[in-house]
Task: inverse folding
């Protein structure tokens, strides 16, 4: 990673230019975010029993978290670019820690829903981290951000692996799960089974305590350097920008909500289609308004530039063909072949092996990408990565009968996903206009959330009908359609990235400034110390 020499020059390699405090804080938050994203997955059924909720109602929680993230990302990243990223990081870590403890004490559906929705605020940590790091890098900024992104993805995946393995095992070994099964068989509600309730509370307290420990880690982030030459009020938010940012959040919230309704109620849900159409029209009008205002909340000019826009669009397509399509892949391999005539009849251990294979490949690719020093090589790898994801679904369309077929698909998908997970975010951060790094990366996060929600809704509609002798299984034809759609999205991602350009070719990044007559002021963290 680019670091600063004593003579003022820059040299590639290492992380000395960022400082130990920043690295510890950023990587600690990524580990916590990985744990929060995976620890609760094996515990969903026990938590549902505690508050008297059906397993299927967890879709509402997914939709609620996505909706809060879609609304919070534009607003919080804009506030971070104006009022300081470090301050907003500390505030959001405290909020997420409080939500984690609320999930421990939750005794009703709505309390648990509120806790999981606020946990979605953690998505702002990535854009804030990259924004702070960019201001402290010199030399090849793109290489520095790529190395930091690689480390962040690796630590995030390590946290996910450990949390996935620990969550269910701890509850099972504590005796809480067996106590729940025995109590339910005897006709007792979960609230009257103290062994189960106490065991679940102790297990859920682990991620809550870990998030609480992340608060002092967040305080290790470097404080912004004083800027006496800055004009008074330069960092004061403009009402027009806040209105534009908040409006964008509401638009995305409406679109995400519309697709969530289609996912829950099916394609016949008229209100879902209305929200999508109205949100799409509002997004077009919002973009036209942003091009005409002198203080835009979203730099539309930057999104039109080939050094930024293709990466943002590719991130949304990647969320469809990888994130959203991974759930149907898991449900297919777990389908009972004897009852339906298709599937792999995989056990939970087999499914864990497949997912662990993909995660380990992603970690390995992220580590390798961190050692790539030239921007040309990074861009070449990013352009080729979607082809590997397309190869994953092509392979699975032709071979999906035994476990090793799924493992080969996991390796191919992990190779492509590892490059895109690291490379796209780093390119977007490197190409963001000065003073708007977090806002631009946050916008890319909104696009990713929206893309994942759209893909998830479309795939849920395709797989809606039951099949064969198992009423819970999705039809084989539906799975084939999902794989074809994912294949098409992967190829579309490759086409989009073919037009992408290196955002670091112009050191001044003047081509990415907004249409405003006055460029956005640098935040304190983005001003070199």
Result:
């Amino acid at each position: 990673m680019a670091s600063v020499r004593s003579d003022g020059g820059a040299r590639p390699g290492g992380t000395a230019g960022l400082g130990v405090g920043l690295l510890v804080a950023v990587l600690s938050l990524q580990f916590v975010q990985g744990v929060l994203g995976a620890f609760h997955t094996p515990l969903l059924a026990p938590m549902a029993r505690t508050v008297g909720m059906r397993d299927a109602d967890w879709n509402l929680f997914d939709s609620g978290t996505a909706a809060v993230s879609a609304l919070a990302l534009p607003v919080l990243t804009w506030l971070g670019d104006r009022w300081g990223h470090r301050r907003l990081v500390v505030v959001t870590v405290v909020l997420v820690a409080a939500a984690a403890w609320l999930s421990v004490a939750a005794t009703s559906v709505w309390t648990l829903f509120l806790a999981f929705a606020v946990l979605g605020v953690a998505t702002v940590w990535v854009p804030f981290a990259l924004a702070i790091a960019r201001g402290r890098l010199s030399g090849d900024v793109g290489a520095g951000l790529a190395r930091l992104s690689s480390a962040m993805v690796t630590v995030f995946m390590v946290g996910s692996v450990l949390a996935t393995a620990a969550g269910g095992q701890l509850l099972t070994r504590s005796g809480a799960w067996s106590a729940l099964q025995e109590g339910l068989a005897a006709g007792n509600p979960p609230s009257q089974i103290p062994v189960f309730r106490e065991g679940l509370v102790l297990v859920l307290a682990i991620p809550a305590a870990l998030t609480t420990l992340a608060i002092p880690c967040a305080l290790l982030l470097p404080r912004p350097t004083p800027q006496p030459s800055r004009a008074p009020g330069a960092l004061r938010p403009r009402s027009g920008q806040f209105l534009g940012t908040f409006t964008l959040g509401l638009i995305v919230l409406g679109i995400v909500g519309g697709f969530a309704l289609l996912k829950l109620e099916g394609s016949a849900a008229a209100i879902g289609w209305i929200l999508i159409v109205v949100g799409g029209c509002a997004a077009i009008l919002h973009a036209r308004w942003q091009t005409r205002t002198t203080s835009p909340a979203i730099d539309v000019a930057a999104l039109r530039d080939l050094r930024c826009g293709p990466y943002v669009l590719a991130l949304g397509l990647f969320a469809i063909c990888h994130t959203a399509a991974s759930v149907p892949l898991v449900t297919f391999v777990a389908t009972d072949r004897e009852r339906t005539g298709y599937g792999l009849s995989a056990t939970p251990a087999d499914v864990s092996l497949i997912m662990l294979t993909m995660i380990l490949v992603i970690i390995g690719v992220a580590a390798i990408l961190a050692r790539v020093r030239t921007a040309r090589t990074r861009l070449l790898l990013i352009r080729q990565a979607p082809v590997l994801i397309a190869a994953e679904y092509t392979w699975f369309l032709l071979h999906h009968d035994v476990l090793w077929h799924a493992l080969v698909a996991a390796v191919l998908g992990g190779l492509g996903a590892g490059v895109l997970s690291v490379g796209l975010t780093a390119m977007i951060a490197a190409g963001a206009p000065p003073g708007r790094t977090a806002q631009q990366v946050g916008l890319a996060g909104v696009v990713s959330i929206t893309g994942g929600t759209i893909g998830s809704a479309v795939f849920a509609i395709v797989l809606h009908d039951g099949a064969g002798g198992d009423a819970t299984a999705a039809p084989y034809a539906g799975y084939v359609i999902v794989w074809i759609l994912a294949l098409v999205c992967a190829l579309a991602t490759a086409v989009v990235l073919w037009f992408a350009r290196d955002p670091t070719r112009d050191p001044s990044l003047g081509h990415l400034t907004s249409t405003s007559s006055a460029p956005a002021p640098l935040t304190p963290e983005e001003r070199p110390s």
About this structure: The two ends are 17 Å apart (CA to CA).
